[in-house]
Amino acid sequence: MGGDLYILDLDDMQQSAVDLGDPTRLVFDYVRRIGDLLDVMPAGPLRVLHVGGAAMTLPRYVAATRPRSAQIVLEPATEVVERVRAEAPLPPRSGIKVRPVDGETGILAVRDGSQDVVVLDAFAGGRVPESLTSAGFVEQVGRVLAPDGMFVANLVDRPPYPRVRAFVAAVRALGDVAVGAEPATLKGRRPGNLVVASGEVPAGAFGEPSPLEYRVFRGRAVADAFGGGKAAT
Fold first, then answer.
1. % pLDDT > 90, the chain
2. Could you check whether the bond before residue 160 is cis, i.e. omega within 30 degrees of 0?
3. Which domains are seen in the chain, by residue range?
4. Nearest 5°: phi and psi at 88?
5. Distance (Å, rounded) from C-alpha 107 to C-alpha 139?
6. Which 3 state secondary structure label does DSSP give 225?
7. Least confident interval from 5-9, 105-109, 149-153
8. Residue 81: which H helix or E strand, with range?
9. By the 8 A CB rule, do 112 and 144 touch?
10. Alpha-carbon distance 230 to 233, whole Å?
11. How far apart are CA 28 and CA 221, in angstroms?
12. What residues are paired with 11 via a beta bridge?
């Protein structure tokens, strides 16, 4: 940790970065892109279900930018939660409730149509568990989302994007699909983060960066670049 910046290292990688003095500062690029998606949701408090918590970067961001939001975090790694609470406590009256349970189990207790946004940003052993990208889990997400809700997922993949293709095939049932990625990830130089939004994806998703800074695929472009997959069961 340097200054007010708190870095959580897990599985030999930087899992989360939180500016304790300014929770609206999102350090990692893919987290900033998810923040852009949340920013274009309708004004006012949001009901958000986070599958995966780590240092609670995005829950803190929502609490700061949309006061009175009701947020649930499903995080099974209790030792991580205890460490974060000790080293980087959540602000008082944040509206963030952390449940020590995995995403597959925890989502079963969430009411139908009760969430404006579901965010999937969970890692085990440095990768997103396959069970959380399966058709069955996506079906549960569809159950808990409000009719105009949005599902946002952070996946790590590289060309030819087998995981993203399978995931896109699964989330098409929720409605619109948009995919965002850094140019280096698309060129296959290294595995990278791809953010997939589905459901009622607002206009202006991912902000409006230069094409040199970020690539956004919507509509037919999603099928052209990430189509042909089969949803995992």
1. 66
2. yes
3. 21-226 (3.40.50.150)
4. -145, 70
5. 11
6. helix
7. 5-9
8. helix 78-87
9. yes
10. 9
11. 25
12. none
Six token digits for residue 165:
């293709």
**In whole angstroms, how far apart are CA 166 and each of 96, 160, 180?**
31, 11, 16
Instruction: Write the DSSP assignment of 12-76 as a string of letters.
Output: TEEEEEEETT-TT---SHHHHHHHHHHHTSPSS--EEEEE--TT-HHHHHHHHHSTT-EEEEE--
Residues 106, 156: Cα–Cα separation, whole Å: 23
Q: Which structure tokens are listed for 162?
A: 């087998």
* Angstrom distances, CA of residue 39 to CA of 45, 74, 180: 11, 22, 16
Compute CA distances 81 → 15, 57, 76, 87, whole Å.
13, 13, 9, 10
pLDDT of residue 1: 43
Least confident of 1-5, 34-38, 111-115, 153-157: 1-5
Q: CA angle at residue 54 from 13 to 34, to 5 degrees? A: 90
Q: Which two tokens stand for residue 198?
A: 């589905």
User: Per-residue pLDDT tens for 51-110?
Assistant: 998 889 999 999 999 999 999 999 998 988 898 889 889 988 899 999 999 999 999 999
Tokens representing 228 are 């042909």
User: Which helix H or strand E contains 103, and what residues bound it?
Assistant: helix 103-106
Helix (H) or strand (E) holding 116: strand 115-120
Tell me the pLDDT band of 12, cut-offs 50, 70 and 90.
Answer: low
Instruction: Of 122, 100, 117, give the one whose Cα is nearest residue 52.
Output: 122
